[in-house]
Amino acid sequence: MKIVIGTGNALRGGLGAAMLALSLALTPIAGPAYARAAPESFADLVDQVSNSVVNITTSTTVAAPTNGVPNFPPGSPFEDLFRDFGLPGENGGDGPARPRRSNALGSGFVISEDGYIVTNNHVIEGADEIEIEFFSGKRLDAKLIGTDPKTDIALLKVTSDTPLPFVKFGNSDKVRVGDWVMAMGNPLGQGFSASAGIISARNRELSGSYDDYLQTDAAINRGNSGGPLFDMQGEVVGVNTAILSPNGGSIGIGFSMASNVVSKVVDQLKEYGETRRGWLGVKIQDVTPDMAEAMGLPKPEGALISEVPDGPAKEAGIKAGDVITSFDGGEVNSTRDLVKRVADAPVGEKVRVTVLRDGAPVTLLVTLGRRELAEGEKPPKAVEAPQEVERDMLGLTVTPLTDALRSEMGLTKETEGLIIKSLDESSEAYGKGLRAGDLITEAGQTPVSTVEGFEAQIKAAKDGGRKSILLLIRRGGEPRFVALPVD
After folding, report:
1. In this model, does residue 153 exceed pLDDT 90?
2. Hey, which of 176, 271, 322, 346 has its CA 20 to 30 A from 411?
3. Active-site residue, selected from the candidate residues 52, 122, 172, 217
């Protein structure tokens, strides 16, 4: 099985490309929000919303190959083949190859009478021209207002002499598994089409930090990308984006980005032409049961901070090893909760953040930065640790970090820790993802730089009745907490 991002851009270049596009196909999803029984017909709903659904055609200039053809050896029969068919080539045909125009199809929907239109980013990405076709057959050119690749959403705008029919966003949080939904769009370039199904699951994650997909069995295929998923009241509860498929075709497992995510993105694109998400400035991971036991926490909840680089959190006094349990008045049960809450919080405003530190709650005020400005910093390149002096502990063979190792690994002189030289592949440490070359910087939430210090922390954990010890591991500059049994 594979996740396939639905894209109208696959409908390019004739039948051959269209057949290829089927293997790359598009998006499904959805289920209505309030229906208790199957409706006798969806016809009234189709009549209600169809005028707000649009087909999107994009045009892109595709650069020609440098020589027009692949670089075959002189005298090759393939070179003769290209010349015989009059194709552009270095020695034959009509001369140098020229750039060509490529078209793609997708879907979208109107959200205001003055012409704002929502679609997927991948439908219009790289397009030179964007044309909108309405249900009535009317065609208008559109301009791009803004995009958000992280949620695969784009906002377009057309200018019309008359007010346009439009639809509103519904509350995707109220959608329940089993509710009826209807998808509309332009599947496989066949024109306006409707399909119905139910919501199969909620809160699905694919690969993005802000994923909140509704899963549906409504039939959606390539060309449906960017189209709306309606509840039975005619409100948009999702934007069709991807399908799970072994071959690129719909098998009834589709994903639609939830409207409560999309509407916030659209509001920012409309106001700023870009997104402006909050930024806390921490690296986090979920708290596992063994981590909770090692830290003396009552339950495995919250977001464990593995690193605090320069930024808002560091300025506010948040530290590595803190567990965030509340953000801006809302409970944080996992890293996913925190990421979404921070992203939705206003940039530049102070928010209350509650952390567990040494088993006690601490509340801090953090002035959030802007994520888009903070992104772009690249982690240090990972370098395999060389062989040095060693000691065996917890199934690990560790060696102190020396100046020579720091130089080879691109670390600063201030960096301290123990390098994992090797480990037993049957050990708990290997099963939890530790590998040779990883750097241990903390044990029991205490910095360690010598094997003696490491042993002391293991002993302290045993003496304290702990079954596990919490290690802070760095790989390629990225931190991660891991709990290992001390027996």
Report:
1. yes
2. 322
3. 122
- CA 370, CA 368: separation in Å to the nearest integer? 7
- Strands 116-120, 153-158: pairing is antiparallel
List 152, 211, 217, 322, catalytic entry: 152
CA distance 208 to 446: 33
Residue 101 is predicted with a pLDDT of 60
**122 counts as catalytic:** yes
CA distances from 216 to 44, 50, 182, 189, 284 (A): 21, 20, 10, 21, 31
d(CA 81, CA 95): 15
Q: Give the SS3 label for residue 214.
A: strand
Q: How far apart are CA 144 and CA 126, in angstroms?
A: 11
Residue 425 CB contacts under 8 Å (≥ 6 apart), including other chains: none
| Radius of gyration of the chain, Cα coordinates, nearest whole angstrom | 28
Provide the token pair at 80. Answer: 């003769």
The string of pLDDT tens digits covering residues 11-34 is: 443 333 333 333 333 333 333 444
Q: Is 84 designated active site? A: no
pLDDT, tens digit (0-9, with 9 covering 90-100), for 237-291: 999 988 776 666 678 888 999 999 999 999 999 999 999 999 999 999 999 898 8
pLDDT per residue as tens digits for the range 80-104? 544 444 445 444 445 555 555 667 7
152 part of the active site:
yes
Residue 382 has pLDDT above 50, yes or no: no
DSSP annotation of 36: S
**Residue 109 — pLDDT band, cuts 50, 70, 90?**
very high
Give, in degrees to the nearest 5, the angle at Cα 306 between 303 and 311.
95
Catalytic residue selected from 107, 225, 245, 326: 225
Q: Closest Cα to residue 55, out of 215, 200, 227?
A: 227
Q: By 3-state DSSP, what share of the chain in percent is helix, strand and coil, each rounded to 5?
A: 20, 35, 45
Place of tokens 């409707």: 194
Q: In the chain, count of helices (H) and strands (E)?
A: 12, 28
DSSP code string of 256-293: EEEHHHHHHHHHHHHHHSS---EE---EEEEPPHHHHH
In the predicted model, is pLDDT for residue 351 greater than 90? yes
Residue 103's alpha-carbon distances to 12, 56, 62, 68, 152, in angstroms, are: 5, 10, 10, 20, 20
Do 252 and 197 form a contact (C-beta atoms < 8 A)?
yes
- The first and second tokens of residue 136, run together, are 């009535």
User: Long-range pairs for 72-81 at CB < 8 Å and ≥24 separation?
Assistant: none
- The number of residues in the chain equals 487
Evaluate whether 318 touches 332 at the Cβ level (below 8 Å). Answer: no
Residue 85 near residue 127 (C-beta atoms within 8 A): no
